[in-house]
Structures are given as C-alpha cells and as structure tokens.
Design a protein that fits this description.
alpha+beta, HIT family, subunit A, 2 helices
C-alpha cells in the first residue's frame, strides 16, 4: 500500500488545519500556501491517489466534492464573479500530493489557465 498522505491525517484531525467543511464523504480546508485570496482544498475522506484511480464506488464522493465546492464558493462570496476548480493528475499534471484533491480558487481575476513552460 502507498504511504499515507498528509491529507488523511488532516481528515482524522491528527494534524491541525483550517477545516471549513467535513462530512462522511469529503473534507475541505484552507491551503497553507494559497495561490489566490481564497484557496480551499476539497478531498475525499477515502484516500484515492489520482483521478485515474477513481472507481464507480467513488462517484458519490466525487459528486459531493463538486457540490461542496459550489457551496463554499457561495459562502466565500465567489459565486457572482466566478472561481476556478482544479484537479491535477499525475506528475505532468502537476499533482504534488497523491490523494486526489480539488482546488477552489477565487477572490481575484485568475488569468489564463496555462502559463508558459
């Protein structure tokens, strides 16, 4: 089995985090290195390494991640002007923690999706 991630420890409250939402399927917390005024990570409570590892039984958690993202965006005042949701997959996709996670970013104009290199 792969090594447990920091996200699993946050979910179990073994390490501190600014958790803004948690239920039986997903947990959301503020990123410690925010890339925008609002930067929240939304993760399934089940450790799923990448999008490629999602199975049919994971569909409820994946759907909940989207619904929670929309709710948090409204609560954070982002819905009217817009926000970005990002899920990175694998090394070339920029994934750094191998526990699938969605970034909710907003609070300013975010610019183009991809920059240079």
């Amino acid at each position: 089995m792969a090594e447990e991630t920091i996200f699993s420890k946050i979910i179990r409250k073994e390490i501190p985090a600014d958790v803004v939402y948690q239920d039986d399927l997903v947990t959301a917390f503020r990123d410690v290195q925010p890339q925008a005024p609002t930067h929240i990570l939304i993760v399934p409570n089940k450790e799923i390494p990448t999008v490629d590892d999602v199975t049919a039984e994971d569909e409820p958690a994946m759907g909940r991640m989207l619904r929670v993202a929309a709710e948090l965006a409204r609560e954070e005042g982002l819905a009217e002007d817009g926000y970005r949701l990002i899920i990175n997959c694998g090394d070339h996709g920029g994934q750094e923690v191998y526990h699938i996670h969605m970034h909710l970013l907003g609070g300013r104009r975010l610019g183009r999706m991809l920059g240079g290199s």
